[in-house]
User: Fold these one by one.
Assistant:
Number 1:
Amino acid sequence: MELSMQYDAIIVGGSFAGLTAAKYLARARRHVCVLDLGDPRHRFSAQPTGSSRRYDDDPHSVLQSMWDEVATYPTVTLLAEAAVSVQAQLGDFVVTNWSGEHIAGRRLLLAFGVSDILPDIPGLSERWGVSVLPCPHFHGFEYGRKPVGVLNASPQSPQQAMLLSEWCPTTFYLDGGECDVSMRETLESLKVRIEAAPVKRLAGVGCNLARIYLADNQIQPLDTLFLTPCHQLNSPIAEELGCAIDTGPLGQTIAVNAQQMTSIRHVYAAGDICRQTANITLACADGMKAAMAIHHSLAFDRDNIEQRDRSNGGFHAGYVNLLR
Ligand SMILES: Cc1cc2nc3c(=O)[nH]c(=O)nc-3n(C[C@H](O)[C@H](O)[C@H](O)COP(=O)(O)OP(=O)(O)OC[C@H]3O[C@@H](n4cnc5c(N)ncnc54)[C@H](O)[C@@H]3O)c2cc1C
């Protein structure tokens, strides 16, 4: 197997979490290779809001500016490539990409994100991110001036309907699902209207929503529908490496500690893959924490210190003693 140079860290996924980590590792003068497939979760969205970056930028230009900034650091290699598999070999990780190259690194950061599993309702997927929206905290301020709907798409949906009633008159579309008596009472106390019938289809011009068709032959005017979908991890790599995986109400996440370390030594995870809450700011914060933890782990690695020590006249001996 012909290997590339040995990187300090390989990052699988170059979006908000991965690029933030890459930037801070590069600023620590570490050699980093980022592999990215180019399909960030919010790619369907016209405009990100509630993020820490400029609200008037579209999501593609926000990410492109992060990518361009990271590319200016000489120790970063950015590859528009998928990581297909990872093997742990003699203390290194060897990532094989789609082109068949083998890339070696001492630490591995997983930041490959998740994909939403949308309900199979005609007219829904093409409106995702435009008039069918995931989160009132991102879009409730802008879209919550008129009556909105919430689709029963996951165990979190009743809570989403309760929350949206803070912004605007809300109808909860049960879509043929169940709603127990106490939940029904809570929703009604918040003036949330409940429609029991299955949803047949959504309609409107282009990606805009105008009407919702129900199986009991009702046709209701509706501009905005919210839903909290279940999700799936974008890659099996974490599972293949043996990382502990948690299962939450919306799907699987990779278990990490406060420093973003997974259950496997020297493997870290950041962003949506390790949290049930999807959010750009939180993904960036995870990336930053992971970068700091990786940098500490590399800096205080005993073999590394001993190697530096030999060329440094004993300056780092104190660290080595501390670690013994
Ligand atoms: C419709 C919609 C609108 C949203 N709007 C907002 C908003 O307004 N504000 C907000 O804060 N959040 C918003 N979010 C949530 C936000 O998109 C996510 O929280 C954020 O993108 C998570 O960043 P991440 O880096 O963890 O993962 P992602 O952004 O999903 O990036 C993961 C990256 O890894 C790549 N990848 C996957 N597999 C591989 C592989 N095997 N090899 C290499 N690369 C791989 C993917 O292609 C992708 O580029 C929205 C989400 C959706 C669905």
Note: The chain has two domains: 3-116+230-323, 119-226.
Number 2:
Amino acid sequence: MNKLLKAYDGKVRMMNNNKIKIEKFFKLLDVPNYETLKNLSKETGIPTSRLRYYNDNMILPMGEDMDRLCAYTGYSKELIEISLGHISPEVQSWIINHGEDILKEIAVPDLKVSEVSPVFNTPFGTLFHDDCVKVLVSMPDESVDMVFADPPFNLNKDYGDSIDDDMTKSKYINWCEVWIKECARVLKPGGAFYIYNLPYWNTFLSNILNKYMNFRHWIAVSMKGLIPVQGKLQPEHYGLLYYIKGEKPRVFNKQRIPLVTCRHCGGEIRDYGGKKSSLNPEGISISDIFMDINPVRHKKYKNRSANELPLRLLHRLISLSTDAGDIVLDPFGGAGTTYVAAEFLERNWIGMEIGDTDIIIERLEKNERDRELLLKIEKDSNLLFTEEQVRLRQKNNFWTYEKLRD
Ligand SMILES: C[S@@+](CC[C@H](N)C(=O)[O-])C[C@H]1O[C@@H](n2cnc3c(N)ncnc32)[C@H](O)[C@@H]1O
């Protein structure tokens, strides 16, 4: 049976309902195909849709379903839990106490260091046309000041033959753990680590990051125009995880932005509290909700068909967490937005892209449009209202900072 599926990215795909993904759950229950799944459903009385839900989302069955699975497999509840990778606090403390014995039994694979050479250099940066993990393992410990990563979201997008964007959930999370661990290793103490992803994946990536670093913020990057998903709240943000290696950030350059106003009338959209006259003329401090990051939609500024982040976001994060001369690492180059922003801000950068790197190289070589945009971003930072806002507000008789002071 085929079903039309609308994904988070808005794409509609035909899904073959008889095709199944094999996660730990189906491996344990010996379900290699749809026929055996139907059989399992008949034997246990658990509907196929619910069995798929447990498998695809790596969710642990509970209550009656767990009892039925125990009866069917002959395993205890605890054994099923461990086989599905759910480690209870008791099992965890046993592992902690038996580290040496465990390592005698299993060989932990070592990531191989191989020779990598850059495809492009500028006075500020180095770009590798390669798998980021291959490049990362060749880098020395504690050698970069900031990491920004915007990986593929595993939404079955077409990134070319070298990328599987339709992994099983556990494969995607395991892959993320590999590059996150390497990025954390090459980050200097006090360095900032940002990961941009869907809120769903960020709940899992946080678990990985928490092992190596210190949580600072979950930043909600407000995003309009996301496609509604039936039975869910309207999605309105992407998640930006912000972690620090060690206790404190080495650099924290506070950023200020103009008040958010209606683009039609110029009136404030939010109530910032307090007296207007005590507002800082240099703008409001950025919070953990970014309301002013608009997707790159204008053809003039677009360098690829999708997944290109706005320069404003990278300009803000690099300014916040690094100083001129520092090194910014982005393992997922895409259209090179991070590298363009880093060059403009006179930061060094290290980039990697497994797919096409021509877009990045061309963009760095012909950077007039990006510079124009970045100059405007700088001009519109650290003030309460931009020139356009002042004009609109004066026209519609809203207060301006100058008026308040008169
Ligand atoms: C979401 S896009 C990044 C977009 C980028 N932030 C920008 O603003 O242009 C993710 C990119 O990661 C690349 N990629 C995927 N797997 C990779 C890997 N293992 N190593 C390096 N790049 C990879 C993809 O080809 C894609 O261009």
Note: Residues 120-388 form a domain with the Rossmann fold fold (CATH 3.40.50.150).
